[in-house]
């Protein structure tokens, strides 16, 4: 059944970037250009990425491609030609074009093989507001082992008057971890000897391992990300208000509750093409997770071929966003902190290499 899927989509959320990489894997079609990027009402720079589709069973890194020109323009005559900062990645100037609510934006890409693409006009609509974040606590039984616990995260939010109120909600949980890269060892002959990772700040001095400088990889802040897109549903809206929208899950695990976890929800406005795109992505991921339901259709692209012979895939969007966050810690667990799993053994590695989606940069809201 899966062999019949025209496009299999993998959404890859990276760090705090406003651009979310989407790879289109064409099983039965020739490699196509994928154009992926966004402009928003937040300060730039904004990023556009160009790559080529891969076959479903091709697990190599995406093939990035360069263009002769990448430009964003608005309906008031403002425009900016983006700079290629690395192959296939183009950025605006930090002081360059910026998204303004109510304006329309178009992306134009001219490739080196003579094809020219333009997006549909993307209107930047207001983001509304996230009014509240709340949660429920529950126990569940995994396929093996004892019971586990988690928080389900919900929001109440609102749209704008005289707006289509098409939104996507992005959930991110951020928590703190500590590792001990100074405890790393290596095998010499039959013995294990202390071999601190360079980022630990420890080194040899007069034959003794001592701390020479502060550790650069002992404390990390890790993002807990829900990769299933959440888009607005008319069944949940009343007079522009969205009630009881489930946006994510926070498992009760040792590291997540080591100190506290920041629960952040971002409400992102969408144009109709962008909404249809993300709705298709959500339906496709939900279908792929089912044993009985195939993935649904192809993701909608708003990139059209202006001149040339080869069609493109992908999405250029204009979006406004608003965020709200709360903190959870052990005191929020209604059955007590004793149900947090016990501490694991010390980790003798860099926290950056141990925990995916981690950074040593402390969040401004922490």
What's this, in brief?
It is built from 2 helices and 28 strands. The protein is mainly β and 366 residues long. The two termini are 46 Å apart.
Low-confidence stretches: 1-28, 291-296
Q: How much beta, percentage-wise?
A: over 45%
Q: How many beta strands in the DSSP annotation? A: 28
Q: How much helical structure, as a percent, in the residues?
A: under 10%
Question: What does it look like?
Answer:
The protein has helices spanning 272-288, 351-354, and strands at residues 7-12, 21-26, 33-40, 47-52, 63-64, 67-74, 79-81, 83-86, 89-91, 104-111, 116-119, 122-123, 129-140, 148-158, 167-178, 185-188, 191-194, 202-205, 208-211, 219-225, 230-231, 237-238, 241-251, 261-269, 303-307, 312-319, 321-328, 358-359. Residues 1-28 and 291-296 have low confidence and may be disordered. It contains two helices and 28 strands. The protein has 366 residues and is mainly beta. A hairpin with a 6-residue loop joins strand 3 (33-40) and strand 4.
List keywords for this structure.
366 residues; mainly beta; 6-stranded mixed β-sheet; 6-stranded antiparallel β-sheet; 28 strands; 45% strand; disordered N terminus
Which helices and strands appear, and what pairs or packs with what?
Layout: E1 7-12, E2 21-26, E3 33-40, E4 47-52, E5 63-64, E6 67-74, E7 79-81, E8 83-86, E9 89-91, E10 104-111, E11 116-119, E12 122-123, E13 129-140, E14 148-158, E15 167-178, E16 185-188, E17 191-194, E18 202-205, E19 208-211, E20 219-225, E21 230-231, E22 237-238, E23 241-251, E24 261-269, H1 272-288, E25 303-307, E26 312-319, E27 321-328, H2 351-354, E28 358-359
Parallel strand pairs: 3-26
Antiparallel strand pairs: 1-2, 3-4, 4-5, 4-9, 6-7, 6-10, 8-9, 10-11, 10-12, 11-25, 13-14, 14-23, 15-20, 15-21, 15-24, 16-17, 18-19, 20-28, 22-23, 24-27
